[in-house]
Amino acid sequence: MLTQQELKQQAADAALALIEPLVGPDVIIGVGTGSTADLFIDGLARFRGRLGGTVASSERSAARLAGHGLKVLDLNDVTTMPVYVDGADEIDGRLHMIKGGGAAHTREKIVASVAEQFICIADESKLVERLGRFPLPVEVIPMARESVARSLIALGGQPQLREGVTTDNGNIILDVSGLQIDDAPNLELIVNNLAGVVTCGLFARVGAHIALLATQNGIRRLERS
Fold this sequence. Notes:
Blueprint: H1 4-19, E1 28-31, H2 35-44, E2 53-56, H3 59-67, E3 81-86, E4 90-91, E5 97-98, H4 105-114, E6 115-123, E7 136-140, H5 145-154, E8 158-161, E9 172-177, H6 184-192, E10 197-200, E11 202-203, E12 210-215, E13 218-223
Parallel strand pairs: 1-2, 1-3, 3-6, 6-12
Antiparallel strand pairs: 4-5, 5-11, 7-9, 7-10, 8-9, 12-13
Helix pairs in contact: 1-2
């Protein structure tokens, strides 16, 4: 029986095998944040000297990439990337995701938007029939905390301030439990449009293109229809 850590490693290794044919001196790879992304970063070190560079979705990932001798570029200097590789806190069969457990979902969404493909790497426990068991992270400008919280309650959610957490953008996180997420793209639009919200952790209007899910029987690959 594989442990969760071994399953995460399996997913990271599958992504590394998938991107290896793309590696070249002019190629930039987008990299996410989190425990599974950390394993992908560690494996990416094998391409040091062969890869044009990387773009990180957090200060944490940037430091880990640089620690492996991989070049980290500012996204403003990058026009396009073939892939962005990141994990998820939840993913459904339509490849809609909830992300933000590491408080990096705003930058993750920005970096992913520049990539041609989003490859989600996760263990099989992250696959759900309906999103919402994992509380939805919402990045909020501090002065709007209470007004946004009231709006989220009106939507049926139960917002909770994530204590002691400040995002790389200098904002706070409200974790929203109790939401019935039947239409993830529409809810993403509604929450993102609340005054004071930077962005929420729903990745549904543009979800993953490919999911590599590690199981006890190997990698299960899902693709956007």
